[in-house]
Specification:
The protein is of the alpha/beta class. Strand 2, helix 2 and strand 3 form a beta-alpha-beta unit. Strands 7, 8, 9, 11, 14, 15 and 16 form a 7-stranded antiparallel β-sheet that branches. The protein has a 6-stranded parallel β-sheet with strand order 3-2-1-4-5-6, sandwiched between helices. 45% of the residues lie in helices and 17% in strands. It has a domain of 195 residues: Alpha-Beta Complex (LDH C-terminal domain-like), CATH 3.90.1820.10.
Length: 463
């Protein structure tokens, strides 16, 4: 495959459109191919197309750029199709979290678990399945790569109900930068910039679990166990966080989304015997941090609520930058300094080059995690080559973590089947299986209020 075609559905995405452009331009073997950009907003699509063409011209590569507001017009001939769209994501996540808070559930991200995760899947999954069916018809041999949150729910649905060969990705842990950060926490280097490719090759980890709820069960460097070093680092960082916590006699004040992450992680590590890798999300999957708690004589406030207005401002800043490049007010060379290569592009390159490379991929368990269902959809260390991702063998989970994983897996499975079948009974069961919903009346009230607030975004046959 000398000139691959990659089609991005959701080119105006905050995180993936620009990164895909840069990745196609800078990755050997892709810059002679075709990048097709699709977005239902004509103005945003036009801006991204102009940015892509300007960047390709500046880099002097023959990358062909296509675009359309209608995905069916550009899907033909695609070798890879990336799903990265969202229906007014920040706005509806804000509604989800506001309504969840009304019913006593606090969500600091609101896109993967809890009632917010369920209703985000309600909004996004039907369109994801329609996109998958279009791709199966128009480019049946293409790989379908899902980025849409909740990744575990959308990915499970595609595995179960789509005709494409597919897998899902999350850039939360998989990128080289994130792995370098983990190596620094493990004491291998002081800053990520000190870590070389040769050092990464000596680093061995075993990370497994549901997306955003995965755990580090093993970490070695040059064959030496470095979990004790990680533990010391986490303890020091948690102690530093405690300086901003309220004394026991004072009420908690709350704070930013990123506060007390290592304190949360240390608490879970102490209790369950494993390190939660993505604690900024994992803390939402457990009910323990919904209220304030005491740690080492200090009060840790409950989770903060997702800041929809702040996320919208980040979106506005992104579009201001894009307009700056397109208008010439910003030098296009700056785009190459500030943008990053999308994780999917790295994985695609490994498939095209048939070079077995380790990546974290969301895919079927198929028995590699021995104490979870074979049909569970998990984020696992995989060898990626021409035949796609192949999960590596995993360790059993510690008791307790295994039970929490199983509960989340059931909640995700029920969410998928409720949406596919348009079944309110299954929706109620999914809500009550979710680890954050604490009563039948709460579930009923959440479903009623979320449907009322988001009736324009959920499929009409739910109404």
């Amino acid at each position: 495959m000398q000139k691959p075609k990659i089609t991005v559905l959701g080119a105006g995405s905050l995180f993936f459109g620009r990164e895909a452009i840069l990745g196609m331009i800078k990755t050997a073997g892709l810059s002679k191919g075709t990048l097709a950009l699709v977005d239902t907003d004509p103005e945003r699509l036009d801006l991204m197309l102009k940015l892509a063409k300007m960047a390709a011209e500046h880099a002097g590569v023959p990358l062909k750029i296509e675009g359309s507001t209608d995905r069916r017009k550009v899907l033909s001939g695609s070798d890879f199709v990336i799903l990265s769209f969202s229906n007014r994501g920040a706005y509806y996540r804000g509604l989800d979290c506001k309504i969840s808070k009304k019913h006593g559930i606090r969500l600091s991200s609101g896109d993967t678990i809890g009632p917010a995760g369920i209703f985000k899947a309600m909004r996004e999954l039907p369109e994801a399945l329609r996109a998958a069916e279009d791709a199966a018809e128009l480019c049946p041999k293409a790989w379908l790569i899902n980025y849409i949150n909740p990744v575990a729910v959308i990915g499970l649905a595609l595995k179960r109900h789509a005709r494409n060969r597919n897998f899902s990705l999350c850039d939360g842990l998989g990128t080289a930068d994130k792995m370098k950060n983990l190596m620094c926490l493990c004491g291998i280097a002081d800053v990520p910039g000190q870590i070389t490719g040769a050092m990464i090759g000596k680093f061995r980890v075993m990370i497994e679990g549901v997306n955003h709820f995965n755990w580090l069960l093993k970490a070695e460097y040059e064959g030496r166990d470095i979990l004790p070093a990680l533990r010391k680092t986490v303890e020091k960082l948690a102690e530093k966080e405690m300086e901003t916590a309220a004394p026991e006699k004072d009420p908690p004040q709350g704070g930013s989304k990123g506060e007390f992450l290592f304190t949360y992680a240390l608490c879970l590590w102490d209790i369950f015997g494993a390190y939660p890798c993505q604690i900024s999300h994992t803390r939402e999957y457990v009910p323990y941090f919904q209220r304030e708690f005491r740690h080492n004589g200090r009060i840790i406030p409950p989770l903060n609520i997702f800041n929809a207005a702040g996320r919208m401002k980040i979106h506005e800043k992104m579009w201001k930058e894009v307009r700056g490049y397109v208008s010439g007010k910003k030098n296009i060379s700056d785009f190459f300094l500030h943008a990053k290569i999308d994780y999917a592009i790295e994985v695609i390159s490994a498939i095209l080059n048939d070079k077995k490379t380790e990546y974290l991929v969301n895919t079927g368990n198929d028995g590699v995690v021995p104490d979870l269902p074979k049909n569970a959809f998990l984020e696992l260390s995989c060898d990626v080559a021409a035949d796609g991702p192949r999960p590596r063998p995993c360790l059993p989970f510690p008791a307790g973590v295994r039970a929490m994983q199983a509960k989340v897996i059931d909640a995700h499975e029920l969410t998928v089947e409720a949406i596919v079948r348009r079944d309110r009974n299954l929706l109620m069961r999914a809500m009550l299986t979710d680890p954050l919903v604490h009563s039948i009346e709460t579930a009923k009230g959440l479903i009623e209020d979320l449907f009322a607030a988001e009736r324009d975004a959920v499929p009409s046959d739910w109404r």
